[in-house]
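Breakpoint cluster region protein
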Amino acid sequence: MKPLKAAATTSQPVLTIPQIETIFFKVPELYEVHKEFYDGLLPRVQQWSHHQRVGDLFQKQASQLGVYRAFVDNYEVAVETAEKCCQANTQFAEISENLKVRSTKDVKDQSAKNSLETLLYKPVDRVTRSTLVLHDLLKHTPSSHPDHPLLQDALRISQNFLSSINEETTPRRQSMTVKKGENRQLLKDSFMVELVEGTRKLRHVFLFTDLLLCAKLKKQIGGKSQQYDSKWYIPLSDLTFQNADESEPLPIPQVPDEELDAMKVKISHIKSEIQREKRANKGSKVIDRLRKKLSEQESLLLLTSPSMALRVHNRNGKGYMFLMSSDYERAEWKETIQEQQKKCFKSFSLTSMELQMLTNSCVKLQTVHHIPLTINKEEDESPGLHGFLNVIVHSASGLKQSLNLYCTLEVDSFGYFANKAKTRVYRYTTEPKWNEEFEIDLEGSQTLRLLCYEKSYNKTKQNKEDGDSTDRIIGKGQIPLDPQTLLGKDWQRTVIPMTGVSVKLSMKFTSREFSLKRMPSRKPMGVFGIKISTVTKREHSKVPYIVRQCLEEIERRGMEEVGIYRVSGVATDIQVLKAAFDTNNKDVSVMMSEMDVNAIAGTLKLYFRELPEPLFTDDLYPNFAGGIALSDSVAKESCMLNLLLSLPEPNLVTFLFLLDHLKRVADKESINKMSLHNLATVFGPTLLRPAEKDSKIPTNPTQPISMGDSWSLEVMSQVQVLLYFLQLETIPTPDSKRQSILFSTEV
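Structure:
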């Protein structure tokens, strides 16, 4: 300002005096306010003690906000005048784009250039920052300290001032849809993944009463407070979820399950390492390094796992796509936006200053402060449940009309919610009775969510690419998974009330320790819970009758069933079949032909799960786990095949019989959606989970690992072992065994 003023009185002025006074209106006065505050604060900070007082300085600064008010009122005019002067005067344009700022701090980049517009925004930004400082300062000032009431007063004045600016900058230009004088408020915010030209980006999305703002968290440089960059915004009056011209939605790039599992393994590894270091009281540097690694891995998982699209469009054409892992959250966002849209009618646009102010206010307003990683959990927060949750979805009531209904269940694990189970569709009724049981793996889970859908059979409306069916959500609800109530062994009945419908559930939780125990049966003549060698001897067969019967029935009519083996059968049907096999009921094959094929798949899985010793045996389990971890592929193949051939004959023959069947199921993956990896995930723990809970993977025998940490590693390892055999082209078993397996009439 000073050189421009000096030049104005010469024969070659750059700007006229009135232009300078308009652009730099109240800047000298603001400078004085800042200087006085700084000069007062510096000596007090230099002689700091607990009794030192600074409240009067903040209070005085707050009382001078009238100067800022005058500056803000003039801001638009100042920026417009500067823009006009730039267009008319190239010399001024050059100056105003390349302003060097003297910094009191030792700034690395002394040559950083600022535009005049950026600098003119600084005083407005200063009020926002001072308000944040006051906020933090109050947190650290005891209420008995004489500064406390003064700081509180200063904060109150500053906050009122800020909200009055936010309120007034808009009505002065075109009026907002939200009534005049009503504040723009934050309704909802969360971290989301945005798909930008095929690349996944982590965003923080803010829904205000009149617009949706998508922002990106700036990288924090040395101790600076959080800051956001706005990416785009859509006024709610212009926002739609469908875009008329976009008939072919873009495909969503999916990340293979194997890669996601590998990330989870890494995360579990790092977590157990951190626990070990904590126990060994190693230096915090080691732990900090591990925490950094953990944070990187968890962020990567968060970025790559979501695959459900939430599309938003601006009526003026531009569309954006978020990816989510939870339909519950997707529905919540849609509902909240649609509800708010009923109150928004007029379109508007923000000036760059308003957008900047709005983005800056996000730091203070945000409700979700951390990316949802376990690393960001407070030390005293509940670690959540690790184990199995058995859930029976019984029935729904309260519907006004007959519908085709199904439910899905979501739980949170690794910091985010994902869909874990889905009931079958109950056709055209007001009182669906599913009675289906699901076993859900819990990984630090705290909440169970249930969604109830109406199935749409209208194929034309379905976007196959989008993974988005037109099934409508009828209701949704959630219940906390409270360790206190769930740790009792028995089933707990509960009702999830939702708008328009309520669903009855029963739940039973089994912690890791107990779920690892296989219990031998007390019925010596039964099939379930009896050693496989005992059953085959008694039946004079090489493969138990139950395995042959179930596989035969599934081969006959279940190979094209979507989600075969993954979708749970009805719990009561499975119990009926179990009893029939246990009592050697002669009508079992007739019963099977009339049952839902998922119940037959469920019975087979239950049989393997209830064997007193897993099919791969307790003795060989640690060796399989060690073999799969070998990095040399030749050594791995030789080790794994040798181990397989060392299994007792009934176990080996039954496994090869099942393996051939599972490969045939995966051949129809395009129809049944069951890949080799999906099948390995379902059957791995069932065939390998050891009977004794102390048979851990040998990581480092001297270091005990806690149940939660090692558990996911162990499950992943079991999945990997089975996947390995499923992916082998052929298994060269010794001729004698192979012959007897394939051509034995007894099989």
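Residues 147-172 form the longest helix (26 residues).
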